[in-house]
């Protein structure tokens, strides 16, 4: 039977733990080798047999658990995750890029008989605030703004709608590129604003999806790619 070899990043706090666990394994089937701590690697070799397969799984889970504790989430990683989840990653909810994909300018400009905004107006609004806060986050001065939020909701032509979708996508990409490069001091100052941008995107994405489903513009399950 073939043996498997796993190379695991060295974590000093795990060495004693692994040695104790290794004593529980039948020497005929497994052995723990820690001969090269200088290379910051811990090598574990075992014969995978039914009798010790469960132990191997539990051991591996324990190692991963300890390793994650050494690398806890940071403000940067959390913000990057949220930025990507609201943009392209379909995790807890449908992301913005999917919600706005495949629409025509006519559909984007459709409005009901109430004061509700159209999809196009919502996209215009998202572009305005995402770009404005990003500009400030990057240390630049944002353009003058009257403060009237209604001015951020614009209508689109066929050409300008396609351009708007491209611009919205570009701004979201610039956001997580900027967060990746940001200093810790910069993140400490702006973390709340970045988190609010994510919430703002998710909120209006829900409105966009509602309009699409109301008008049967949302693809049926069998049509999804």
Give the number of helices: 8
CATH topology-level name of the largest domain: Four Helix Bundle (Hemerythrin (Met), subunit A)
Mean pLDDT: 80
Structural class call reads mainly alpha
Any idea of the CATH class of the largest domain? Mainly Alpha
Topology order in helix (H) and strand (E) letters: EHEEHHHHHHH
Unreliable residue stretches = 1-14, 25-48
- Beta content comes to 5-15%
* Radius of gyration (Å): 26 Å
Helix coverage percent: 55-70%
**Given the C-alpha coordinates, what overall shape results?**
flat
What is the makeup of the main sheet? 3 strands, antiparallel
- Write down how many β-strands occur, each being a DSSP E stretch of 2 or more residues: 3
CATH architecture title of the largest domain: Up-down Bundle
- Termini separation comes to 42 Å
Number of domains: 2
Strand order of the largest sheet: 1-3-2
Describe the structure in brief:
The protein is mostly helical and 225 residues long. The protein has helices at residues 12-22, 50-70, 75-87, 96-100, 105-109, 119-137, 158-181, 184-214, and strands at residues 3-9, 30-33, 41-47.
